[in-house]
Fold this sequence. Notes:
Elements: H1 2-21, H2 25-28, E1 39-43, E2 45-46, E3 55-56, H3 58-70, E4 74-75, H4 78-85, E5 96-103, H5 107-116, E6 123-127, H6 141-149, E7 153-157, H7 165-171, H8 174-196, E8 202-204, H9 212-220, E9 225-227, E10 246-247, H10 254-268
Parallel strand pairs: 1-5, 1-10, 2-3, 4-5, 5-6, 6-7, 8-9
Helix pairs in contact: 1-10, 7-8, 8-9
Amino acid sequence: MKGVRRGARRYVLALLVTGLMGLTHADIANAGPAQHDVLILVYHRFAERVTDSMTVRPDTFRSQLRYFEDNGYRVVPLSDVIAWHAGGPDKLPPRALVLSVDDGHRSVYEVLWPMLKARAVPVTLFIYPSAISNASYAMTWDQLRVLAQSGTFDIESHTVWHPNFKTERARLSPDAYRRFVHDQFRRSRERIEGELHRPVRLLAWPFGIYDTELEAMARDEGYTNGLSLDAQPVTPRSNAMALPRYLMTQHCDTSCLRGMLRNAQAHHD
């Protein structure tokens, strides 16, 4: 499974970085998404020593946030974006920005939280329970409880153990595949709710893989929204079960960020 995961992540990274970096400085001048577009960022790990593209150094993270702040962005809770997208009465500030982190790596507790604690910045975590209090790289349930009680972290589902649904569909019969998917959705939600005593209604698609069948099964299991890895802004027309996010990496420098804003503007136009 680790080999499949690495391969899929490399594919996603290549796709997103290519799309963001293939823009000239002339193209990106004075770029920025429209007032009613929202950027959702997704991170994975934080550390001074970078061992893979998914690990972001603390100073890189700070510089990325500083760039967005300097360009008029304001970090808001994902729940506010969900309500806005559903047509609720609450309005979002211009250039709203959401921070999310997938997988439940212990660096969220050890590195990210200390950086954000004094600022009370809202963050949504998407975790897969099989790793929590089990894998050496992951947080513990006690640490997640601390984050949940801080008032700035929302903790949602990333399935039970982060499967590749394309691989599972190919190896299982249609009935077995549907049972497998329902089990991944149900057990993750029930475990997180049982440990943290908070409702879980959001699902981040492992490897960004989703389709209409998966979306229907997720809704059957009580999820109201899904989050993808499509490098686009969220607009009122976005699919509620595949709200797009931008994959953030150590290699996303100023040029990458400018390209991201240009990409968002082009999508709106």
